[in-house]
Amino acid sequence: MSETSFRRTPIQHLLEPLKPVWLPDSQSPIVLRYRTREQEQAAMRKLGLCDLSGLSRLGLKGAAAANWLREQSLPVPEQVYASEHLSDGGIIVRLGMTEFLLESSLQDIVVPQLDILLTSQGNQLIRVERQDASFLLVGSQAREVLVQTCGVNFREVSNHTWVFTRLAGVSCGILSYLHQGAPAYRLWFDCSYAVYLWETLFEIVSELEGALIGVGILDEPE
User: Fold this and answer.
1) Which of 14, 125, 140, 205 is the most buried if burial means most Cβ atoms within 10 Å?
2) What is the pLDDT of residues 68-91, one digit of tens each?
3) Cα separation, 73 vs 102, whole angstroms
4) Do 77 and 86 form a contact (C-beta atoms < 8 A)?
5) CB atoms within 10 A of CB 105
6) What is the phi/psi pair of residue 84, to 5°?
């Protein structure tokens, strides 16, 4: 089994009763959609909550990490806590001068390719197994969810910037960016808190008249 992938979602038992459409022929349980395309597009514009935990991800650290990524023709963020989009729609975040996190998109091309190419170079290039859970808040009301759960004022956070903070009491890395013009916040945190955090966020999203969305709608063109 590839070390790039967190090959399950810790909230699968919460999603199955909703009878979503799952990604077929996948080793990872990834929800494509819960409702119609039109309904999920509307939710994504206003407020959508999505589970990304089944996507492939890869951690790298070491003095050679940045150069190795450049050799693979990847857009390496120059600043710590900055991010860039990968060619397949995934994301790369620079967590430190010598540490990076990469998370795939539904297309799942770049991260698996890197996993095949990656060869340990001692302390110069080290694979970091990422066992995070990952959620996404997206839409015009997404920031309001963070107002209720987090002490950081995300109006003052630049797009494509990672912030490490606490969300509803849980230590969490939050990446702020725009998805199809709408505010988006990708969350990474210890998977042992996934059920609690999902239920907390879902309650707030529901109060704000948002909805769950599948990963499939995120990969559709504008």
Assistant:
1) 205
2) 999 999 999 999 999 999 999 999
3) 14
4) no
5) 21
6) -140, 155
Q: What are phi and psi of 19, to 5 degrees?
A: 55, 55
Structure tokens at 157: 């956070």
Total residues found in the chain within this entry: 222
Task: Kindly report each contact of residues 30-39 with a partner whose C-beta sits within 8 Å and lies 24 or more positions away, as own/partner.
Answer: 30/54, 30/55, 30/106, 30/215, 31/214, 31/215, 31/216, 32/214, 32/215, 32/216, 33/213, 33/214, 33/216, 33/217, 34/211, 34/212, 34/213, 34/214, 35/211, 37/217, 37/220, 39/211
25/149 Cα distance (integer angstroms): 36
Q: Dig out the tokens for 45 from the structure.
A: 């514009």
Instruction: Give CA separation, 96 vs 81, 82, 107, 166, in Å.
Output: 7, 10, 27, 19
Question: What mean pLDDT do residues 38-54 have?
Answer: 97
What does the alpha-carbon distance between residue 79 and residue 92 come to, in Å, rounded to a whole number? 12
Helix-strand-coil percent breakdown of the chain, rounded to 5? 30, 30, 40
**How is residue 164 written in tokens?**
């490490």
> Phi and psi dihedrals of 67, rounded to 5?
-65, -40
Host H or E run for residue 101:
strand 99-103
Rounded average pLDDT over 6-12: 77
Q: Which residues contact 192 (CB under 8 A, 6 or more apart)?
A: 10
